[in-house]
Please model this.
Amino acid sequence: MKDQNAGRRDRPSIDARTQAKLGEKLRSHFNDLVNQPIPQHLIDLLGRLEAGTKAADAARQEPEAGPQGAGGDPKTGQSEGNPGA
Amino acid sequence: MNVSRSWKPEELLAAVPSLRAFAISLSGNVDRADDLVQETLLRAVEHQDKFQAGTSLNAWLFTILRNLFHSEYRKRRREVEDPDNFHVGRLASQPEQNGYVDLRDFQSALSALPAEQREALLLVGASGFSYDEAAAIAGCAVGTIKSRVNRARVRLSELLSLNAADDIGADATVRAALQDAPRT
Model:
């Protein structure tokens, strides 16, 4: 059982050429996906989000827009880094 | 954190194609990927006050999406993964039959990797993030990302029979002799 990676213990590796071929395939796969058209329902969603954000911005920019006013309210940031967690 | 908007609308739109490519490659399922992208966009807008201006919007969106994916993945863990159940065949308009087949084969191989390795490889090898950025997105140490990427490359090149011996037209016997270690 010869092991050319014996010096690297549990870190087997692949040679540079194989890695280059693999990288090329991976990027080509990914780029094919990137170039897919965005589904209409996501475009529609972005449009609705944009409209909602504009409305929210307008509300926040009103000088006397209630408790949140121009000063904002820093304590609403609940310091949990990842909303998706 | 109050008045000014966290990003320009076109920035969100511009981020979607690579975010979606990441979601499809990660989940191996277009419908699920689109659900993930949709949920990510909704959460991004909902929590935009937590986005730090000047940092990468892309990295932030990828972080949200991968967290969604993994929390969902844990819930679905008991489901048996069926390699024939990938919906990549639904991908629109792949005119050349070969490209179509290659895409499926590559995705099948990718989907055979453990999710954490797949994620690391996609972040570093396809999405253009540095090891540091990928580690921040995946919430682990840089060394862990490097190790995952390395293991993903080794496994994927085996699955795709990409070893260098294939290039010199070696027959099966020679190839077997050139194998550096038994595959188990």
About this structure: Chain B touches chain A through 64 residues (CB under 8 Å). Chain B is about 60% helix and 0% strand.
